[in-house]
Write a structure and sequence with these properties.
binds phosphoenolpyruvate, 244 residues, alpha/beta
């Protein structure tokens, strides 16, 4: 992927049986093949569909990613997937530290840090998610919380070519709520100051075709991590075209 183009990521989460997922991938690939996308595109299907989606999008220029990984290369970790396995299945990226995993699975910064290091070990780009809860923002602690997450989750010697940070306020995910543009700018500016120069910083949380234009035209925002709206090819495509 080009260094300074924006990046739009589709996180399908735990959605899509084979027929639906492959149809969605086919639609997105057809759109990306018919007209040059205004940004880099990455789709992250559930693990069961990674290999098959990879075959569908081959040659379209769309990158493929996992939604999570284990830090170890292999071993007795029932139900987990290593970065080496993701790479073997065709992935170039992996999302780590999504708030749904931090909250529902109790993932700590130290575990997330080990996963980022594992992604780099295998040559994958880590899409590192950080973000504050509603209570933390209301308490005026958003900047401090995200700074602490970054400090705890980012291994030493960051490889900027293999690092994408996604700022995703927990209270904005799947709620239809978004922070003010000034709050996003402030947070992205703070994140940029705390990570090695050159890494892309995405915004995530209720991005849709209606708000994508004003979000993605901001200089501070290098792209979007999209959940719900990535499950409709036309919406995902419209969001990506807002980068233009
Ligand atoms: C996400 O899951 O990372 C996300 C941003 O979801 P949504 O776009 O649905 O808010």
């Amino acid at each position: 992927m080009a260094a300074h183009r924006k990046l739009v990521v589709g996180n399908w989460k735990m959605n899509g049986l084979r027929a639906d997922g492959l149809a969605l991938a086919r639609e997105i690939a057809a759109l990306a093949t018919a007209a040059a996308p205004a940004c880099d595109l990455l789709i992250c299907p559930p693990s069961t569909l990674i290999a098959a989606v990879g075959e569908v999008i081959a040659g379209s220029g769309i990158a493929l990613g996992g939604q999570n990984c284990h830090a170890a290369e292999k071993g007795a970790y029932t139900g987990d997937v290593s970065v080496e396995m993701l790479k073997d299945a065709g992935c170039s990226h992996v999302i780590v530290g999504h708030s749904e995993r931090r909250q529902a699975c109790g993932e700590t910064d130290a575990e997330v840090r080990a996963k980022v290091a594992a992604a780099w070990r295998a040559g994958l780009v880590a899409v590192l998610c950080v973000g504050e809860t509603r209570a933390e923002r209301e308490a005026g602690r958003a900047l401090a919380v995200v700074a602490a997450q970054l400090a705890g989750s980012l291994p030493d010697g960051a490889d900027v070519a293999r690092l994408v940070v996604a700022y995703e306020p927990v209270w904005a995910i799947g709620t239809g709520l978004t922070p003010t543009l000034a709050d996003i700018d402030e947070m992205h500016h703070a994140i940029r100051a705390g990570i090695p120069a050159g890494a892309r910083i995405l915004y995530g949380g209720s991005v849709n075709p209606k708000n994508a234009g004003e979000l993605l035209s901001r200089g501070e925002i290098d792209g979007a991590l999209v959940g719900g709206a990535s499950l409709k090819a036309d919406d995902f495509w419209a969001i990506s075209q807002a980068c233009g």
